[in-house]
Amino acid sequence: MVEKSSCSIEQLEVFPRLRIFSHVQISYLSKIFEIHKYRKGECVYKEEDPSDFLAVILSGMVLLQKGEQNLHKTKKGSCYGQRHIFGYDIFSEYPRNLTVKAIESTKLLVLPKKKLIDFDHNHPITAMNFYKLLLSYNSLQLRYISEMLEER
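Predicted structure:
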């Protein structure tokens, strides 16, 4: 069973990309993030579950699956579920399209949809900068995928 706890400012300050935010903005962000801990073999979410959070792996490793097919293992620093923020899933009711399982003891930095929506209304400038950060991350992922496809 997942163990949940609140996120501290110190846990966010270790991410180099978050250094664009002031200490006050990081304080705001720390209030919307949660820490989730999973044991080896536990399911983070299943295909068809509601899309209600994005996550960054703080420690451990997860396996992304589509049906019975193993697609990719991701480890510390990897972010997933972020595409759901940009007009797809997190602001709507589309379900997850993958299953994610912890393949070792794993700690995630989680941003729940409800907290993000509230944050967007209460701290629009910080939220806008956070969205820019996620867009840059998505751009890097797309470049990586493109390079992988070119190698085939």
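Summary: The chain has a mean pLDDT of 83.
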